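If your schedule permits, I should be very grateful for your opinion on a structural question. What I wish to show you is a protein chain and, alongside it, a tokenised description of its three-dimensional fold. Would you kindly read the sequence against the tokens and tell me how you understand this chain to fold? Here, with my thanks, is the record as I have it:

===
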Amino acid sequence: MPEKIRQAWEEIYIAEGSDWFWWFGDDHSSAQDALFDYLFRKHLLNVYQLLGDAPPADLARPISRRGLRPPYTLPRSFLDVKIDGRQTFFEWVSAGGTRGRPNVVRWRR
């Protein structure tokens, strides 16, 4: 296998094994989201450069757009809550919430 192709595969393996797959999404956020986004895209750009091909323009744009989200979520429907001293998840599942740390929603009760 030619060296450039082997290096391109190595870049693909690095991208596939990167933390991007872990942190991307509301459930797994960190202060390093932008860095993971950049590094993931950089490894994919390297594949195109190693193979002498022009990368797609989309790889120049960040995947994560978290800065564009409002710091709250709206309620999805009216709540059917029993005031019985017991707290259950399903009573509050449609509640709105605010975001404290980036993308961590705290439900209003």
Remarks:
- The chain has a mean pLDDT of 80.
- The radius of gyration is 21 Å.
